Amino acid sequence: MQNGGMKMFIAEIGINYAFGEDKSKFLQNAKEMIDMAVMAKCDVVKFQKRTPELCVPEEQKNKPKSVPWRKEPTTYLQYKKDIEFEKEEYDEIDRYCKERGIKWTASVWDVNATQFLAQYDVPFVKLPSALITDLELLLKCKDLFKNIIMSTGMSTEKEIRQAVELLQYSNLTIMHCNSSYPAKDEELNLSYIKKLKKDYPGIKIGYSGHEQGMSATLIAKTMGAEVFERHITLSRSNWGTDQSASIVYDQLWRLVRDLKRIDVWIGDGVKKIYDSEVPMRAKLRG
User: Fold this and answer.
1) Are 106 and 46 in contact (CB under 8 A)?
2) Contact 27, 85 (CB under 8 A)
3) Which tens digits make up the pLDDT trace of 162-214?
4) How many CB atoms are closer than 10 A to CB 266?
5) What sign results for the dihedral spanned by CA atoms 39, 42, 44, 46?
6) Domains present along the chain, CATH in parentheses
7) CB burial readout 81-104, b (16+ within 10 A) else e
8) 37 burial class (0-12, 13-18, 19+ CB within 10 angstroms)?
9) Secondary structure class of 105 (helix, strand, coil)
10) What pTM, to 2 d.p., does this model score?
11) CA separation (Å) from 4 to 123, 144, 263, 267?
12) What percentage of the chain carries pLDDT values higher than 70?
């Protein structure tokens, strides 16, 4: 997307489709969120893909977990399995996104998930903040995908640089990010976007926001961000850990609209009398 200087807006569906008492409705929930992104004129919808047996730490696997679609408490591992879309669901997501005219992709959390995603024609693969120190995963992404977007939450400058040096090529995008859900205002540190642009010239810099509201994402655009990502939800009152840091449709479409307007609002910095001001000038000054 080139309108108003904005390059791309990613609507992060993530796991926000996993709510309610009927697990069989998860895919329909996801489709409604795809529709939401289409109506708001987003460029890409994004999911998360993991292999639960590999991604859930051993000490977490058997911890009890209560979920609304099971009458009895289950384990944390089973919960992660419950919410994971597999090939049947992603085939339908792929078909539905083509029908609706929007791209889709996913964040990958392990090598198996990376290989899984590679069977689809996605515009890029996303490396989540938590895994930019996983060199095996980074190398697999570099091997399988032409375009990579990497978030940098919970990371040191040294960790970011090591990942960039391993991945560095023309189709890498670095996303400034705070990994708290929701992120505190005083911890957004949007000015760091300028430092990323200075430190990594030639690499596109973006912003993945987990804050409440929309204003910080708009400010990120004025700091030089070109790619934007926000979690979306059908309702922040839905069950799930990411819902409170997500935005609903009314916020989403206004955010996408206003990101396109910012360069127009900023203007060229040259003072002038606009044609629309001439009648008012004549009326008030004579």
Assistant:
1) yes
2) yes
3) 999 999 766 999 999 999 989 999 999 999 999 999 999 989 999 999 999 99
4) 11
5) negative
6) 3-285 (3.20.20.70)
7) ebbbbeeeebeebbebbeeeebbb
8) buried
9) strand
10) 0.94
11) 21, 32, 6, 11
12) 97
